[in-house]
Write a structure and sequence with these properties.
The complex is a heterodimer. By secondary structure, chain A is mainly beta. Chain A has no helices and 11 strands. In chain A, the strands form 2 sheets. In chain A, strands 2, 4, 5, 9, 10 and 11 form a 6-stranded mixed β-sheet that branches. The N and C termini of chain B lie far apart (about 35 Å).
Chain lengths: ~110, ~120
C-alpha cells in the first residue's frame, strides 16, 4: 500500500534552535517528493520539490534531504523562528498509472520564545 | 497579487441543501484542483481540471460536481450536502497539468464547510 508516514507527530522547540522532521514512504514507483508548510487556518505552501535523483534542496532556512534507496526524507529547520510554528507535510508523487499525490498527516511544530 | 482566491471562507449548511464553492486564480495557470482536508487524513483530491474545458475525477468525487468556467475560475458544487462532507476545502492551481509532475501547486486559503 502506498503510504507516507511522518515523525514526530508533534514537536516543541525553543526559538533559535534547529530541528529535523522525518518522512518515510512506501510509494512505488516514485516520481518526486515535496514538503509543504501549512499555518493554522491557511492553505499549504510549497517549500521544496525533489525528484528521485536529487539528494538535497534548500529554501532559506529549510533544507530537505532525500534517500530514494531507503525511501526516507527529512526536513531540517535552522535557527527556528516563531513564524516557523506550523504543520509540515510530506507529499510523495506516485508515478504509476493513476498518477497522484499521497499526502502525509504532517508534523505539528511549535516554536516557543 | 492575490494568487488563488476562494469563497466563502465559512459556510454552514443543512443536510440536503446545495451550495457552490468559488475559486479563481490570477497566475494564468492551466491546471486547477479541489481538495478536501479532514482530521487524521491527508489532503484528498476531489476533482481536477488539467486545462480549460476539461475536468476529471480525483480520489473522492462522489457527491460533488465541478465546472471550469474559464481559465481563471473553477467551482465546486455540492448538490445535496451530507454531514460526511463537513470538511475544509482547498482550491489549488499549477502552471502545468498533472499533480504528479515536478510542478509547484499553489493553494487558496481554504473554505470551512459544516453540514448539520
Amino acid at each position: 500500500k502506498n503510504q507516507v508516514e511522518q515523525s514526530p507527530q508533534s514537536l516543541i522547540i525553543l526559538e533559535g534552535k534547529n530541528c529535523t522532521l522525518q518522512c518515510n514512504y512506501t510509494v512505488s514507483p516514485f516520481s518526486n517528493l515535496r514538503w509543504y508548510k501549512q499555518d493554522t487556518g491557511r492553505g499549504p505552501v510549497s517549500l521544496t520539490i525533489m525528484t528521485f535523483s536529487e539528494n538535497t534542496k534548500s529554501n532559506g532556512r529549510y533544507t530537505a534531504t532525500l534517500d530514494a534507496d531507503t525511501k526516507q526524507s527529512s526536513l531540517h529547520i535552522t535557527a527556528s523562528q516563531l513564524s516557523d510554528s506550523a504543520s509540515y507535510i510530506c507529499v510523495v508523487s506516485f508515478a504509476g498509472n493513476n498518477r497522484k499525490l499521497i499526502w502525509g498527516l504532517g508534523t505539528s511544530l511549535a516554536v516557543n520564545p | 497579487n492575490a494568487g488563488v482566491t476562494q469563497t466563502p471562507k465559512f459556510q454552514v449548511l443543512k443536510t440536503g441543501q446545495s451550495m457552490t464553492l468559488q475559486c479563481a486564480q490570477d497566475m494564468n495557470h492551466n491546471s486547477m484542483y479541489w481538495y478536501r482536508q479532514d482530521p487524521g487524513m491527508g489532503l484528498r483530491l476531489i476533482y481536477y481540471s488539467a486545462s480549460e474545458g476539461t475536468t476529471d475525477k480525483g480520489e473522492v468525487p462522489n457527491g460533488y460536481n465541478v465546472s471550469r468556467l474559464n481559465k481563471r475560475e473553477f467551482s465546486l458544487r455540492l448538490e445535496s450536502a451530507a454531514p460526511s462532507q463537513t470538511s475544509v476545502y482547498f482550491c489549488a492551481s499549477s502552471e502545468i497539468p498533472g499533480q504528479g509532475k515536478g510542478n509547484t501547486i499553489y493553494f487558496g486559503e481554504g473554505s470551512w464547510l459544516t453540514v448539520v
